[in-house]
Amino acid sequence: MAIIASNFKTNHTRKTTKEFVCNVNEYLKNNEILSEVIVFPTSTSLDNFDTVSNLIIGTQNAYAVHKGSYTGEIGTEQLDEFSIKTILIGHSERRHILGETQEEVAQKFNFYKQLGYKIVYCIGEPLEVKKEGLQNTLEYIYEQFVGIDTNYENLILAYEPVWAIGTGVTATNEDIINIHNAIKEKISKPLLYGGSVKVNNVREICSLDNVDGALIGTASWNQEDFIKIIENTKDI
Ligand code: PEP
Fold first, then answer.
1. Could you give the residue numbers annotated as active site?
2. What is the whole-number distance in angstroms between the Cα of residue 97 and the centre of ligand 1?
3. What's the number of domains the chain is made of?
4. Which residues are registered as beta bridge partners of 191?
5. pTM score, two decimals?
6. Residue 90 · residue 121 · CB < 8 Å
7. Rounded Cα–Cα distance for residues 210 and 180 (Å)
């Protein structure tokens, strides 16, 4: 069964997040969809949602701490209030815009691993690295596994080429196959693709060998489109 994840980034309010989660939940319940669906709302929209077991709410980020003096961050005290046990780590926007280093990413990974969180861990190369060819791209990606326990039982990987995120440019099937095959040879974990996945290409992408689902930003923010995405992949 496919794993379909939605990254809200800095979109939606508490009110629209609640509507979104309720509607997706109703759809999953009424249509007996077995896919695992994960939604990452903003921290301000986390809540105690009553959902079916295959609709999981995760956090886009949190600091590697229970509580303390880390202005602007949240820790597990805040996540526990909403029983959140799923976290997105290593997203390229946190690495490249917010400047998280591999060391910081690995520290966060290890903290949440020890607590048993489901971790969706992102890796992916910028355009200048892609232009250097497959070998360099793979070397760049492998560097993003430094300090990461790739045997962790609750780990889901997401390959997200930076040049395809939010740009409308999806990687070609060949690009996806090359990278996914190489990663899967080394790491036997569910591996999602992310980068401009849309309603009309999600089925084709998720049907490729070694693609276990999709992590979707822009195209997932509209609830009708997100439900269509789940519908289009429900039997994969
Ligand atoms: C993402 O942010 O994880 C992502 C894949 O974004 P988009 O679908 O907009 O490219």
1. 91, 160
2. 14
3. 1
4. 157
5. 0.98
6. yes
7. 6
